[in-house]
Amino acid sequence: MKTVSVACLVAATLVLGHLRLTAAETVRFRYLASVYVDDKEAGLNRPEGIACGGGGQFVVGDTGNGRLLRFTYRDKTVSGGSEIRIPQVPAPSRVQLNSKGEIYVLDGKQRRIAHLGPDGGFKAVLAFDGVPPPATIVPKSFTIDPADNIYVLDVFSARVLALNAQGKFQRALAFPGDAGFGSDVAVDPAGTIFLLDSIKRRMFSAEKDADAFVPLGGDLSAWLVTLPSYMTASKGVVFVVEGGGSGIVALGRDGSFLSRQLTMGGEEGSLNHPSQMCINDKDEVFIADRDNSRIQVFQLIR
Amino acid sequence: MGSRLTIACVSVIVLLGLHAAARSQQNPYRLKEPDQKKACLACHADFEQKLKQRFVHSAVRTGECSGCHDPHVSNHGKLLAEDTSQICAGCHGSMVPANAKSAHKVVADGACQKCHDPHASENAANLRTKGDDLCVGCHKELGEAVSKARFKHSPVERGCVSCHDPHGSDQSAHLLKKGVPALCVNCHKADSPAFVARHMNYPVAKASCTSCHDPHGSNQPALLLNSVHAPVANRTCSACHEAPGSPTPFATKRSGYELCRGCHADMVNATMAKARLHWPVADKRGCVNCHNPHAAKHDKLLEKNGAELCRGCHADTLKRIAATSVKHAPVESGTCVACHSPHGADGVYLIDQPSMIQLCATCHDYAQHSSHPVGDDAVDPRNKNLRVDCLSCHKAHGTEFKWMLLNATNVELCTRCHKKFVR
């Protein structure tokens, strides 16, 4: 009897261990909601930017309408939708929120990053204080870490610029010499910076305080079928958005493939040329579903 | 004693010979015609003429037809003892050098017979045709360009093999016997005063000659590539590069598009004012991602023509297009720029028209095409934020259905939106 009990215990441990391992390797999205209109029932127009904040807040870069929209997702319900329209940002293409709820937005037309207060009031344009030459900086993307440091992908000089919360230069990380085209940058809570090479379908990473990127994993072309353009990191998983493929590819922190989620379509739960995505502290995923002119919300199941 | 031994030896040899002759007579598989060559030619009489040609493959000349062909059965065409891609290597080994930097594809594929006649030819090395005629048989476009070029390069006139190894090269790309500029400076003395003066004192002996010159011939003096950047034509290299005597003479005075803005300010400023950039324009290389800053074969100093240029980054899109059976005409002709602005645009997909309908209207007259509502007032019933436009029914690059429609039948197409009619 004792032998049987021990055997059962061992078997249960093995099975549970296997299930846990499988769960860790699996990342899935479950559809929750879609957002089509603002608080005045005006429709979204090709939104490209989205940022997640605390308390279910999310801010949308409603690019085609040249404005930002602020919503809250709570108890499976989307509310709000108030408009932030500022002349300094005519084409908001990427949005990030810092720990204080301040809004940073990349203007696609002027290619500069505007800093707004939590209320949406314009504060300043990121000045890149102390950044080494050349003076020309072309920010394609940027991200903010939990300590409010800002990481800007400067394609003109093929580098990632790390700035502190006040926008002062901290360090620069050059793209690896054999990189194809640096398309996006992400940072995880540990301070690891990730660089997405969209042309050669590769990832690079730089640990906190490292002075150079190193390859992360190998060739991802089997998983990234079309040009990947956006990326975000959350709890040990890097999510890469394939605009043309209208899917999200989840990669492990070591660059290994975990899963591919969502497909192209107009139905709710499908995507058509998605752009930025963000994930909040409740593992709720918000995707700017650009060519469907809407925001879609999913529950991330790990 | 000696003579007895001699007689004995002769006797043994005679006896052995008689024995062998008897064995041969008894061998049921012996050739009727002991001479293998004659045996084959008894049937393959048309080969008589072939063998009279000037250069005959040694195996054929010695009558060893069975060196390549199995006279009885084979799994390969023409009763070859091995696959055509393998059989030559049996005697000739690999003709591609070890550690080759480039290999002629036909050689790498083992298609030796595309250039060589395996039996006989009037041309040395059993080549099927003489000299460069053989090369331009495949490289037609290059052959035409060479023949039409106003200014010829003398090594080309002497023959392609002046510079290229037709099998493979362990020295350089493009089957070149040496890399560039090492190959060029074999003939062109880079330290001669005339050479130095013509290159404005820049130390070009270490540069890539082919970034300006077409080694196959050109309509431009000095064999410059047909499309020449004005500062090169005017020999004002220092407009872009540091002074020839500086430690870094080839370094550019500014980076990326900032350098080009110096002369092309209108174009660069207009591009930078667009809401969406073609990102290579703004990266570290900038304009030279697509344009050669010195000279190029194609108009507008483009490195490659049409879709081939776009393929460098958008290979996945072109692969999907290749899989469609009905393609949009500009796509089929590789004219991506018919719809997409290559520098930047205000619209998505780098489309520089206010709407997709207006883009299509630059070629198509919708009023002559359909009466279905489209445009700002035609709300897509599936999503009120979308409007019905050309792409509601058609796919811009192509599909497997007629007129590039999204579905095979009208019923399937129409009920995408008009769902109440779904049966």
How would you describe the shape of chain A?
globular
State the low-pLDDT regions of chain A, or none: 14-24
Model regions low in confidence, pLDDT < 50 over at least 5 residues of chain B: none
Largest sheet of chain A: 4 strands, antiparallel
The coarse silhouette of chain B is flat
Number of domains of chain A: 1
Radius of gyration of chain B: 34 Å
Q: Helix tally of chain B?
A: 18
Give a count of the beta strands of chain A, DSSP E runs of length 2 or more: 24
Task: Name the quaternary structure.
Answer: heterodimer
Enter the CATH topology name of chain A: Neuraminidase
CATH top level label of chain A: Mainly Beta
H and E string of chain B: HHHEHHHEHEHHHEHEHHHEEHEHEHEH
- Pair with the biggest interface: A-B, 34 and 25 residues
Roughly how many Å is the radius of gyration of chain A? 20 Å
Description:
The complex is a heterodimer of chains A (302) and B (423). Chain A is globular, with a radius of gyration of 20 Å. Chain A contains 1 helix and 24 strands. Chain A is mainly beta and 302 residues long. Chain A has one domain: TolB, C-terminal domain (Neuraminidase, 6 Propeller), CATH 2.120.10. In chain A, 8% of the residues lie in helices and 45% in strands. Chain B is mainly alpha-helical. Chain B has 18 helices and 10 strands. A two-stranded antiparallel ribbon of chain B has the order 1-3. The longest helix of chain B has 25 residues. The model of chain B has no long low-confidence stretch (mean pLDDT 91). At the A-B interface, loops of A face strand 6 and helix 15 of B.
